[in-house]
Amino acid sequence: MAKSKVKKFKIPLVIKDVLAQWVYLEYPDTKWNKDGVYRVEGIIAPSNPIVKHLREQLMPKAMEYVKEANPNVKNIIPIEPFTELDDGSYQIKAKTNAIFRFTDSMGQERIKENVVRVFDRNVKPLSASEIHRGDTVNLQVTAIPYYMPASRGYGISFRLAAVQLVKKGDGLDSGVLFEAIGSPEMESLDKMFEMFQGDSEGDF
After folding, report:
1. Residue ranges of the domains in the chain?
2. Beta pairing class for 82-84 and 90-97
3. How far is it, in rounded angstroms, from Cα 153 to Cα 155?
4. What CATH code would you report for 16-181?
5. pLDDT (tens digit, 0 to 9) for every residue of the chain, 204 residues total?
6. DSSP per residue over the chain, as a string?
7. What are phi and psi of 17, to 5 degrees?
8. Burial, 123: exposed, middle or buried (Cβ in 10 Å; 0-12, 13-18, 19+)?
9. Are 43 and 19 in contact (CB under 8 A)?
10. Distance of alpha carbon 162 from its chain centroid, rounded?
11. What is the 3-state secondary structure (H, E, C) of 122-178?
12. Do residues 1 and 66 touch, judged by C-beta distance below 8 A?
């Protein structure tokens, strides 16, 4: 299949109030990728604004992208980026490569190390080792569409950029499923920092 000339959209947003289940921030997960992947998987409430935003805006936009990039493909199948659990909540994940490999203008392979930035409630830098299973976090991500020709499935993946610790937890067994606050912000992380600069407390 020829490479599509249609450019993928990349939309920055914030997924708020995620109850962390699996956290790979201090060290990348190398189980399936030898270069490593930083990732956070967690639980969101069904009322979290990202659910409605994704279904009403991001998934239709991804479908438009796939149809434009693959005009001869029919009967494509939507795949949501979260899994509904027995209690009605959703499991969601965001990830990014620990290392980016690319070829420079001289044809030489180069390697660039990636870092997921971590912050506290006051948007001050925080050690990645402070984020654990059971903590409530906000995730700064980039929404990117994808399409799998073999299965005709399409959807949205969340590329992880930064994590904000909202509330320390005592583990998932003692945690209480929260109600989401606010809505996804369609702004860059730097813009958000400007927004909260000087505040005693804030979020992304």
Report:
1. 16-181
2. antiparallel
3. 7
4. 2.40.50.140
5. 455 577 899 999 999 999 999 999 999 999 888 889 999 999 999 999 999 999 999 999 999 999 999 998 889 999 999 999 999 999 999 999 998 887 878 888 888 889 999 999 999 999 999 999 999 999 999 999 999 999 999 999 999 999 999 999 865 543 333 333 333 333 444 444 444 333 334 555
6. -PPP-SPPP-EEEEEEEEEEEEEEEEEEE-SS-TT-EEEEEEEE-TT-HHHHHIIIIIHHHHHHHHHHH-TT--S-EEE-SEEE-TTS-EEEEEEEESEEEEE-TTS-EEEEE---EEE-TTS-B--GGG--TT-EEEEEEEEEEEEETTTTEEEEEEEEEEEEEEE--S-GGG--PPPP-S----S-HHHHHHHHTT-SS---
7. 55, 60
8. buried
9. yes
10. 9
11. CCCECCHHHCCCCCEEEEEEEEEEEEECCCCEEEEEEEEEEEEEEECCCCHHHCCCC
12. no
Q: Structure tokens of 12?
A: 């920055």
- Beta-bridged to residue 29, according to DSSP, are 37
Backbone CA torsion sign across 76, 145, 183, 49: positive
Taking the whole predicted model, whether its pTM rises above 0.90 is answered as: no
- Sequence letter at residue 114: N
